[in-house]
Amino acid sequence: KVTVSVLYWWNPCSMAGFDACGPCVCVKQSHVGFLEEMGKFQDVLPPGLTFINPCTQSLKAAVSLRLHQTQCMVSSTTKERMTLRIACEIMYRVIPSMAPTAYYSLSDPKEQISSFVESALRAELPEYSFDELYASKQAIAGRVQCALEQMIQHYGYEVVDLLLVEFYPPQDVIMSMNRQMTERYNRMAQASAAEIVRIENIKRAEAEAEQKRLQGVGSAEMQKGLSAGMESALALWNDGDHSSEVMALMLTENYMSLQESISRAKAGHKTVFVAGGLESGGSVLTHRTV
To answer: Which of 27, 115, 176, 286 maximizes the CB count within 10 A of its CB?
Structure first.
């Protein structure tokens, strides 16, 4: 019976961007290593395998050249002295030619770069009102990024992009903005309703005008017909044989038309009142002329 023991060896340096084993050191891709001799920085090691003198030299650390991203929440004031919070996203990386400066200058790059961002934002935001912040978000981010680059380039870092993700005003300001928006939409709805009423009134007036025009045309045609009838009646009257009957008929017709007009003076009334005891057109003529 044979027992086989397997020894697993874990190198803690592999988590820091490089592997080291005696005189052999291996820097991982997208990293650069820093070679120190007797505790003093000597050279930058590129990715790959490098042989060193383990007695006097050591690979101190490796810095990643990849793009880093960090978040920060900044509290600042606007032109109206309103305090709000701003959520920021900063994308930065180490400048390859200044990698030793980046490693030996800043002890905590994320926290220190976030502090630079807070300082730049607090200097920029008081120049804008709250309404202008949303419209000028890109312009503000660009100016803050330029100011930030000037601050951190001396430390071997560059800012690739800076995003102002969101503004968080106080809750009472949000409620006030919602009320203003609601009132504005209510005014727009009232204006639309008033415009609809105005159009309806115009169309109704146009319809009434057209109705009256047609009534006038009808009245004119009726007058033409009456005139033609009267001409025929006068022609018969002038004959002399039926003059009295024609006159009685015309007067009776006019009398009945007058009574009908009086009855229509009030809406809904259709009753015509005729004097009692009238038995013929001649009686009507006699009654109306007495």
So the answer is: 27
